[in-house]
Amino acid sequence: MLGNFDSLREISRNARGWSVGSLAFPRARSWRPSAVSSETTGNIDSRAQPRPQCLEHNRDGNDKKITRGVYAQELEVAARAVQLGCMLAQRVQERILRKEENAGSKDDKSLVTVADWGVQAVVSWVLSQAFGEEVSIIAEEDTKGLKGMNGIQTLQRVVAVVNECLSQASVVGLTPPSRKLGTIEVLRAINKGNSEVRSSRSWVLDPVDGTLGFVRGDQYAIALGMIEDGRVVLGVLGCPNYPMRPQWLNYHQKYYRLASKIAPPPPGKWHKGCVLTSAKGAGQAWMEPLVWNSDGSFLLNPPRVVAVSPVDDPAQATFCEPVEKANSSHSFTEGVADSLGLRKRPLRVYSMAKYAAIARGDAEIFMKFARAGYKEKIWDHAAGVLIVEEAGGVVTDAGGRPLDFSKGRYLEGLDRGIIVSCGTGLHRRIISAVDASWNSSKL
Question: Which residues form a coiled coil (predicted)?
């Protein structure tokens, strides 16, 4: 069953597989992406072979099949939507680095790119096809920057990248639209993200989290979560530039690209880019490669289980924090780190890739303490929080309370800041260190 959300379409099963709404899928958990041909028929390539099964390797050497639980179908749709969004974002980032595309700015002076609008349109289209036009989506972008004379050219580029991406939806196992989307349809898909949080079910999307990192050719993330009755119950986090060797997180992505040109990884090797997924109550999180990578490779590795680090000694812990100083106080977190006894230099990473680092066990702590007046948005945390918690980690505000996603587009009632860690013992020590440092801070 897909739950009691009445806008979900009936799932029909037949010999070929199953469908949700007007999206067609092969059998659940058994798809494998087919190569993109010059002739896109609008259907999944019938020659596509089964997707690798999602397996967990046990200590006794036996593998067992992983099941995704009550949200299996929603997770399937969400993962494919994020895979498709990652394809679009990678292409736009490459064009930005080649100076073929540029970034603009919003009214609040934050950056926005064709990818922000394009990914939002693509994910919105996929969710609407699967769960009906009435699906509730809360997302970061609107279409204000695409209006007027100044926005016309940008809008044309957004429509172009959206249709380019959707025409190749079969790469991730989805049926492409039968025709190109028009300008009005793309604008409508973007604006679908202006929904209000429903008491029953809403999707939460950050189309490009870490736009500054994205523009600079560094880390960014595509984050999609689902909120049900005020709780995050599903999370998908796409990190196209995330290195499988975590040591590279200490360096700007441009150095990794340079090193990969000098000494290319073996063909078919999963060396960067991942999509992390989980659902409430699963008790584990999974990581799979990007189906399509910017180097042109198609990776078919089976998803694997990821788990947080077992480290509980602050002296051995790696600590993440945002790169930007505009909405996070480095000086305060530096004081907390010193009080806690952290010895390693902070790992400053753009975007929700920090949540991925905790869930994968590449880091143990992430702290964010915003400056006065800044309000945290739910799309900046929903997917990451769920994935870290199901991977065995802990996420609370600085008072030790769970984050509240039931109050609308912002995390209302947040006590000072956000703390993410790999375990309860370390978490308690962080909260104590925050309390000890708070009275002397200027936040």
Answer: none
* Interval 204-237: pLDDT, tens: 999 999 999 999 999 999 999 999 999 999 999 9
Residues placed in the known binding site: 140, 206, 209, 380
The CATH code that applies to domain 12-39+51-56+64-306 is 3.30.540.10
pLDDT tens digits along 327-370 = 677 778 888 888 888 888 888 899 999 999 999 999 999 999 88
Please give the Cα distance from 208 to 85 (Å, whole number): 9
H or E segment and range at residue 120: helix 114-131
d(CA 197, CA 407): 8
Compute the distance between CA of residue 87 and CA of residue 167 in angstroms, rounded to an integer: 12
Neighbours of 114 (CB within 10 A): 27
Domain ranges of the chain: 12-39+51-56+64-306, 314-438
CB 220 within 8 A of CB 210: yes
Do the Cβ atoms of 239 and 261 come closer than 8 Å? no
Residue 92's CB is within 10 A of a number of other CB atoms, namely: 25
**Which residue numbers are catalytic?**
116, 211
Report helix, strand or coil for 179: coil
Q: How far apart are the first and last CA of the chain?
A: 47
Alpha helical stretches, state H, 324-403: 330-340, 353-360, 382-390
User: CA of 315: how far to CAs of 136, 137, 437, in Å?
Assistant: 44, 42, 18
The CATH number of domain 314-438 is 3.40.190.80: yes
- Binding site for Mg(2+), by residue number, is 140, 206, 209, 380
* Distance separating alpha carbons of residues 204 and 137, to the nearest angstrom: 6
Residue with tokens 């749709």: 77
Q: Which long-range contacts (CB under 8 A, 24 or more apart) does 344-349 make?
A: 344/317, 344/318, 344/319, 346/319, 346/320, 346/321, 347/249, 347/250, 347/318, 347/319, 347/320, 347/321, 348/320, 348/321, 348/322, 348/323, 349/213, 349/219, 349/249, 349/320, 349/322, 349/323
